[in-house]
């Protein structure tokens, strides 16, 4: 396809795009050109799709998506005493915790929207409402087909379907989760922001593939003591290429007439190919804030932890918790009425990641039981066990030697052998 054809194709796409957005909005044109990808200095076209062909990008996105998907997303009711309880009778609880739509499980749904966030910085879901205004289902939308603009303080969502037709979706019917944003309208794509690091990784991977496609042999330089005209030089070059490719690869060549062949080009060690590949893995892990060990990369020795528990606490604190908070707060903003927000909230259960080993948990439970802030049933719930049916399971116990500061509690003297209660009263 020639240059003119390329320009015509782009202008045609732009014409179709103009029908679905505000051309005076810079965000509109930013989103438009993102559809074609961005070219890095390493001459690689970097898009979410091409980036996902890198094993390290795919692995990092998978870690984030599967982690968020595996965490239970609950809807709670606020209690008057400051506590909370699962709002199991609310329709939103079922949609977020069990099944958001007839086609997906809650795991698949959250896995998909987290993948969209990790690659494009935005996740959109269509809110299918009932006749009374309630929520009937949640359907994820392709962020590459969504255009978002803002006019006079109001957000507009224009979605292009696979048949090329577009429709404006009311803001009230969109669940929009943003990543880091410069304008508060759309989130920044991590892939676009890190195009140079990802492009360099793509280029080094292509170099390695081409190097081994040539059976890991660098180029050859041919020297001849005499003079060769142009036709003879071409014929000599072609004959040597034929002698070293295809079925003739690795076979011995017989050189005559003073011909000499030398290898040119740097070896992989000289060009630090392995070191470059390792650095790019670490660099891309930084983009997604995923520890290398979680993608089975053990070359990063920069961070060490005293225990697996401390490692997971760090991962939850710096990586998972920020994404979980974005999803929780956007769920309240987009899926709840103002009245419901005062009574309910959505929250991920992160306890499984910070459970610790068995001995550490039991020591913590012992402290909680002995100091009165855990009941036996509280402990059993944390261990995913059924409660004790008797009232004893809900009792809280306090040590006898604990009292309010400044008080002078009366301590009963222990009975002596032969003393009766009457004798003790007399004393």
Descriptive terms for the model:
single chain, 427 residues, alpha+beta, 3 domains, 3-stranded antiparallel sheet
Characterise the protein shown here.
- Pfam families: Phage_portal.
- It comes from viral metagenome.
- This is Putative portal protein.
- Residues 407-427 are annotated as: Disordered.
- The protein has helices at residues 3-18, 26-34, 48-51, 55-70, 91-97, 106-120, 190-193, 195-213, 230-243, 273-288, 308-335, 338-343, 358-370, 376-382, 421-426, and strands at residues 38-39, 45-46, 73-78, 84-86, 122-129, 135-141, 146-151, 154-160, 166-169, 174-178, 220-223, 260-263, 344-348.
- It is an alpha+beta fold.
- The chain contains 15 helices and 13 strands.
- The chain is flat, with a radius of gyration of 33 Å.
- The longest helix is centred in the C-terminal third of the chain and has 28 residues, at 308-335.
- The strands form five sheets. A three-stranded antiparallel β-sheet has the order 4-3-13. Strands 6-5-10 form a three-stranded antiparallel β-sheet.
- The protein has three domains: 13-216 and 267-352, no CATH class; 219-264; 357-410, no CATH class.
Tally the helices: what do you get? 15
- Specify the structural class: alpha+beta
Proportion of residues in helical segments: 40-55%
> Tell me about the biggest sheet?
3 strands, antiparallel
Beginning-to-end CA distance, first to last residue: 109 Å
The fraction of residues assigned to DSSP E strands is 5-15%
Organism: viral metagenome
InterPro entries: Phage/GTA_portal, Portal_HK97
Biased composition (Basic and acidic residues): 410-427
Protein name: Putative portal protein
